[in-house]
Amino acid sequence: MTVLTHQFHQSILRAYDIRGIVGDTLFEADAYAIGRAFAMLMSQQSGRDTPHIALGRDGRLSAPSLAKAVGKGLVDGGARVSDIGVGPTPMLYFADRHLSCDGAIQVTGSHNPPSHNGFKLVANHQSFFGDDIINLGKAAADGLPVKTGGSISDYSVQDAYVQRLVEDADFGSVHVIWDTGNGAAGPSVRQLLEKVSGTHKLLFEEIDGTFPNHHPNPVDPETLAFLQQQVAEAEADCGIGFDGDGDRIGIIDAKGRLVPGDLLTAYLAQDIAPKYDKPFLLLDVKSSQVALNLLQEAGGRSLIYKTGHSHVKKRMAELDSPLAGEMSGHIFIKDGFFGFDDGLYVAIRVLSQMKRTGQSITDFMDNLPEVYASPELHVDCPDDVKFSAMQTLARLAAERADPNDSINTIDGVRLTTTNGWWLIRASNTEAKLVLRAEGRDQAALTAMLSSIKSYLSDIDINWTPPAI
Asked: For residue 245, which of 200, 177, 182 has the smallest C-alpha distance?
């Protein structure tokens, strides 16, 4: 066969990655076509007949077969493939730079259920997303030629990756409980801990795609319960958890509190911002006003931007920003690093900052002003409805808002009033709407949540605010 034409299920080509339900919307044939199409596009972009592509995968049960299929597609598309095997997504990002690749693909379902899987792609050391993914789908539909000259070989980068992570690590005598949740980061974290000081306990380090102990989502309170218990029993300084592919982090302080991604970014900003002249520091639209204020106080210019790791990395590059963060636990550090989201590296920076400054993450949380904010909340909304629903909500907000209110529609609808703010946005990875609210006091927070309920009822979604 000299030409392949392929149509993907309409739901899997997402805003910043490719993701679906294995055996339902995502198949090995899709993985093969992704490899073929990506090889062609990388050849065109690099000007090389044989582009160099790094390939990695997480620990999901479907990952080996999907990785084999995408690898074959890359080879048949004429690419030279360096297969780095199982590991966290940031190790794949590292391999892309370490091996001077033209592109990279990680087979990963991130924090989604075990039945899901997908692909995160990199081109020219930048995220491959949005129109890039649309063009990949179009290229597959138009027809992909077979090329000769492709090859695939194994190439381990784990030693080099871990060595880079610990390059400037200095933990002192810190006591930490780590939880990799049977995800892909386990072996890398184990190797990392063998090279640093302190007292450490690692939970659930074995990679197991069934996730037998808990779902690997480090910002979900239900998945953090055991880590909180372990921190309390050990009287540890903090607990650190990762998602299934290691690009997101969740931190529990010594008092058992989850440190949200926006506040974790604010903690890091105290160390990073003073090194620069009024740097741009980014937070996503779900972030707290308290966190935005802290970025300003640290000497930065705080900006709200779209949620999504690809969006954030692109905007960071445009603004030459040294730091950005999302509520979800994606934290991006360009200060002394590469600027991609690496949960393991963020952990190292936090622990090293604690030792160097003498301010623990618990001290930081203790000194915050009172925050009356909800966690990230979700409500089901079909994929084929959620974006049109957001258009309706934006129109309703514009019609109803008080003249003193402000509306930000860069990613969903964020309505800010004198009493606080609320956000409703469409998830780019799930059939859900994402909700968050913050008030100047408890009564204002309750009012903000009630306002969300009212707006959702106008688009025929019945939602009851939780008690917060």
From this structure: 182
